[in-house]
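FORM 7B: Structural annotation worksheet

SECTION A. Query
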Amino acid sequence: MKLIDFKKIRDEYIRQNGVPDEPDFSSGRPDYILLFIILALLSVGVIMVFSASPTLGMRTGNGLYYLIERHILSIIIGFAAMVVGLRVNYLYLKKWAGISIVATILLLMALFVPSLGRSAGGAARWLDISLLSFQPSEIAKIIVVIFLAAVFSSYREDKDDILKTLFLALVPVMAIALLVLKQPDLGTTLVIIDTTFILLFVKGIDGRILWGMAAAGMTGIAVLSLTSAYRFKRLIAFLDPWKQRQGAGFHIIQSLLAIGSGGLFGVGLGASRQKFFYLPQQYTDFIFSILCEELGLIGGLGVVILFALFVIRGIRIARFSNDPFGQFLAAGIVSWIGLQAMINIYVVTGLLPTTGIPLPFISFGGTSIVVTLYATGVLLNISKSSAMPGEKK
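SECTION B. Predicted structure
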C-alpha cells in the first residue's frame, strides 16, 4: 500500500505535459514560498533566542553572547550550507551515500573515545576535533535520509529482492539508531526511526512488514522506558508531573506554567518570567514555551501553522519531483523536520514524556541549525526541477 504513488503521479503529469523524465536544473527556480516559510521560522528563532537567552548570557558578562556570538554565527554558516545544497546537483549525494553512512557510524563511535567525545547534561553528544565541535547525531539525520533515498530509488521490483534491499538499507540505519540511543538521546533516535518508517511506507513496503516493524519498535521503546531508571522517572513524571515537582516533573511543570501564563496574546515580547532560571533549557529545547508565554496562543499557533505549511509545501515538491531519488530525498527531509517539530511541541505541551530535542529553525543550536539549513537547501534544489502544476519554472 502506498500513501502517495509518486511514480504514477509523475508519469501521468509527464504524459499530459511533456515534462522531461530527468532533472533539469538549467532554467528551474527554487520554491520561493518554501524559502519564505524557512526565513519566517528563522526570524522567529532569532527574536526568541534574543528574548530568552540574555539571562544566561549575563553569566559570561555579555547578555548577547548566545545571540550574536553563537546563534547568528550558526545561521550565517547555515546559509552558506544552504547555498551549497541549493546550487550543487543533489544527484551527487546518491553516489556518496554509502561512504557517508559509514563515515557517520564512525563519527558516532568516536563519541565514546575519551579524548574526542564530550559530555553535556549527562549525554555524550559532542565531538571535539581540533577547534571544531559538533554533534554527529544531527548530521546522522540527513545522512540517513540520503542513504535510504539512494537505496529505495535504486530498487527495481522486477529484478531485486525486496527483503535483501530492506536488509541492506536497515542494518546501517539501525546501527546509527543504537549508537545515538547509547549517548543517550532517545528523541533523536525516535526521529531517525520514525523517518525511516515513513520512507518505508512511501516506498510501498507490504503492510504486514510495516505492522511487524511498528510492533517491534513500540515494544523496544516500552522496554527501554521500563529498564532505564531516568527514562522510567520521566515516564512517571509524564503521567503525573506534580508528584515529582522538584524532580523529573520540574521541566514540564515550568513549561506548562509558561504556556498557561501567556494566555491568548502573551505577556509581551521580552517580558517572560520563566526565563529567569525557572524553566531549564529555555533557549533550546523549551524555547516554544517561552514563545507561548510572551506571544500567547496566537504566537504559538502561528509557528505551528508555519511548520504545517512547510510540510505541505515539502510534500508537494516530493510529489512532483522528476526523479525517484529526489522524491524520496524530499519526502525524507520533510518527514524528519516535521517529526522533530511535532515531537518538540508535544513534549513542551505535556503530550509526550520529556526528551531533549530542539525545535527546528527556532531553537538555539550550532550543528542543528547548520544541518537543517543545508537540508532545506537540498529541498529547494529539488524544487527547481519539480514539475509542480500551475507554477512557472
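SECTION C. Observations
The mean pLDDT is 83. The chain has one domain: 6-19+36-384.

SECTION D. Sign-off
Analyst initials: ____
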